[in-house]
Design a protein that fits this description.
two-stranded antiparallel sheet; about 210 residues
């Protein structure tokens, strides 16, 4: 099925005209929101197939194995520091894991801000549309250059709809990703605590981890 781009452009142009001045800011808000959510989803992709303790045991022996997510990267990095025998391991792990935390928190504030302001922009468009409607009623003008009563009501409804269409899906996905972020932060804390309590003993066939 071929897409008629002229028809698509015409419909998008009509949508923007019907929604009024707030449609362009809402459009850019939607672009920024989905870019931020997409980035956060990519960074926090894939759940851990193993528990943290199993992951520590696995990568202590298989340090050459590739990682599939940020928690596994943190485990490999922490084990490497542990094997180097660095002093004050907890401080070094805090510094390393801080970078991972920064990565999973990236765009969190931006996406949350857009989710909050999008309905407000829609409400602003609603107010502008209703003002135009009442102005048209005051002038008894059913049809004016700006659309009159019909144009004002259309602008009020379209801007509200656009604001909610941006905010509601964004809020749902943001909440899901925020829970994932909290889980990763808990995993990083657990990795740090386990590494600081364990003594790694290298063995020709296996690595044994003993709790101090």
């Amino acid at each position: 099925m071929l897409i008629n781009f002229d028809e698509v452009v015409f419909q998008v142009k009509g949508l923007f005209e019907a929604g009024g001045a707030v449609m362009l800011p809402l459009f850019f808000c939607a672009l920024l929101l989905w870019y931020g959510l997409g980035y956060r989803f990519w960074v926090m992709k894939e759940s851990n197939a193993m528990g943290i303790r199993d992951m520590l045991d696995f990568y202590a022996v298989n340090s050459d194995k590739p990682t599939s997510n940020i928690v596994e990267q943190a485990v490999k990095h922490g084990i490497a520091l542990k094997k180097k025998g660095v002093k004050n391991l907890r401080r070094h792990l805090d510094e390393v894991f801080y970078e991972y935390k920064r990565e999973i928190r990236k765009f969190s504030v931006m996406t949350k801000t857009i989710i909050v302001i999008s309905p407000l922009l829609g409400l602003l468009g609603t107010v502008i549309g209703m003002i135009e409607t009442f102005d048209s009623l005051a002038a008894m003008a059913l049809f004016t250059q700006s659309g009159g009563i019909a144009g004002g009501i259309s602008q009020a409804l379209m801007s509200t709809q656009m604001g909610l269409a941006v905010a509601i899906p964004g809020l749902l996905i943001y909440s899901m990703l925020y829970k994932k972020q909290q889980q990763i932060e808990r995993d990083l804390y657990q990795i740090r605590e386990l590494l600081c309590r364990r003594t790694v003993i290298n063995h020709p066939t296996r690595n044994l981890h003993h709790e101090i």
